[in-house]
Design goal:
465 residues, Heat Shock Protein 90, rod-shaped, five-stranded mixed sheet, four-stranded antiparallel sheet
Length: 465
């Protein structure tokens, strides 16, 4: 699903952004929760310290009335003759809260105050009346309450006690924060898609140029633009194209020169042989010279395929196949040709005619007859050539495309040829973005399948026997 580099890179960036934003949000939310809870605890300490200072500065007879006025459902205040919970090793937060309380009520000694700040009531806590309505109230879903209990020594036999709870933190998370994070993620995603598109566009252009080079060495060079690294890669690619083209042209020129240099003495030898008195040796010599001329011409055809400068044009491939079949039929060959509908292809007419001629000629030569079928399958042109011959050994199917390699079934009679027909056909078809494959048919004979990219399909059908 994510096969392209662009899609994979964007996906990795988006997942990374989502994970990082989620972790950041979780850390922020947790820190904010703890801050709010601790702030509530300090507020309770300040309120308790205020009540404690007040009770220390008024006559003792007024204490019950002040305690009753300060007591509430959410903040309990009451007096006992002993601490309401046992002294335990304080936590870091409890030590900080104790220090804050003593700073507000300086008269308190070290052993005159006990602070409890945890999620549950202290073990053995001496509960005041109505505690179940306050400290044991249900915590809202998703929120957290912490219990704050304080016992302060106010006299020989009097301890002033305070009990409160932090506010539920279910609503501590600001609702707009999720919207902000989602909006930031959307903006970052758009920027990532744009940036990765710019980074991968040169790779796409290079892939297109490489594909175009595979079918046409004289294709327009790749544009040398963009970042420094992209320009360097484009320059290297264009230099490679020039070297490949020069290599093919040098090979073609060398073979053309060799052909010319060899054909001149062969022509001279033929003239001298023809001027000699007629004899059996003269006939053999003329046949040998003709074979040499044919071999040289075949070599030259093979070399010229890669350097072919024929212009491409829109052509009717069905009509081209029918004309080739007509030419073979005029020589008495047994073959049929079926074209399901007009088929258009953008290519080199002469080169494609040579490729199809080589394949059909092989089918007639080695398989006695040829059945040619062409059809359009979506964006692909498929041409099948069946013969009635003995087929090819499976191990040699791939080898027959090598130059000067011929393969026939065991016991099949030897045929004339140089083993270049299928090699030339394959080079031409690959130059047009196509492919050629061989397979032995179950009912006997060989099937050659050729595929080419279609230019466009025409609706009117055409068929000929």
């Amino acid at each position: 699903m994510l096969r392209s580099l662009k899609a994979q890179t964007v996906a990795v960036i988006l997942v990374g952004l989502l994970v990082s934003n989620s972790l950041g949000l979780a850390i922020y939310f947790r820190d904010r929760q703890e801050t709010l809870v601790l702030q509530d605890a300090y507020d309770i300490v300040e309120r308790a310290a205020g009540v404690s200072r007040l009770l220390r500065n008024i006559p003792d007879a007024w204490n019950p009335e002040i305690e009753a006025a300060s007591d509430s459902r959410a903040f309990r205040v009451w007096s006992t003759t002993e601490p309401v919970f046992a002294n335990r090793t304080p936590t870091e937060d409890e030590r900080s809260l104790t220090t804050d309380f003593r700073s507000k009520v300086p008269a308190i000694r070290d052993n005159d105050i006990r602070v409890w700040f945890r999620r549950a009531l202290p073990p053995g806590f001496l509960q005041p009346p109505g505690l179940a309505d306050a400290a044991e109230a249900e915590v809202p879903e998703g929120g957290r309450r912490w219990i704050m209990a304080i016992s302060v020594h106010h006299g020989d036999d009097e301890w002033l006690n305070f009990l409160g709870q932090t506010s539920p933190s279910a609503d501590a998370f600001p609702r707009y924060l999720l919207t902000t994070v989602l909006f930031a993620l959307l903006v970052q995603s758009a920027i990532a898609v744009w940036l990765i598109g710019r980074l991968t566009a040169p790779l796409q252009r290079m892939a297109t140029a490489a594909t175009r080079l595979g079918t046409d060495l004289r294709a327009t060079p790749m544009a040398e633009s963009g970042p420094l690294e992209v320009r360097a890669a484009a320059q290297a690619f264009n230099l490679m194209q020039k070297r490949l083209l020069r290599l093919v042209e040098n090979r073609t020129g060398m073979l053309a020169a060799i052909s010319h240099d060899l054909r001149t003495p062969i022509t001279q030898m033929r003239l001298r042989t023809e001027l000699a008195p007629p004899s059996e040796e003269q006939e053999k010599m003329l046949v040998t010279l003709d074979e040499m001329n044919t071999i040289i011409g075949t070599f030259l055809d093979y070399a010229r395929v890669s350097g072919d400068t024929e212009e491409r044009a829109l052509l009717d491939l069905g009509s081209l196949l029918e004309s080739i079949c007509d030419d073979f039929a005029d020589t008495g060959a047994a073959l049929t040709c079926t074209v399901d509908q007009p088929i258009r292809h953008y290519g080199k007419r002469v080169a494609l005619k040579r490729a199809f001629t080589n394949v059909i000629e092989n089918a007639i030569k080695y398989g006695d007859r040829a059945v040619v079928r062409a059809r359009l399958e979506g964006p692909t042109i498929t041409v099948e050539i069946d013969d009635a011959g003995p087929g090819i050994r499976p191990a040699e199917i791939d080898a027959v495309f090598r130059p000067f390699r011929r393969a026939v079934a065991t016991g099949a009679p030897e045929k004339e040829g140089f083993g270049l027909g299928l090699s030339i056909a394959q080079m031409i078809l690959e130059d047009h973005g196509g492919a050629i494959t061989l397979e032995n048919r179950a009912q006997g004979g060989l099937r050659v399948t050729i595929t080419l990219p279609a230019h466009r399909a025409a609706p009117a059908p055409s068929r000929r026997p």
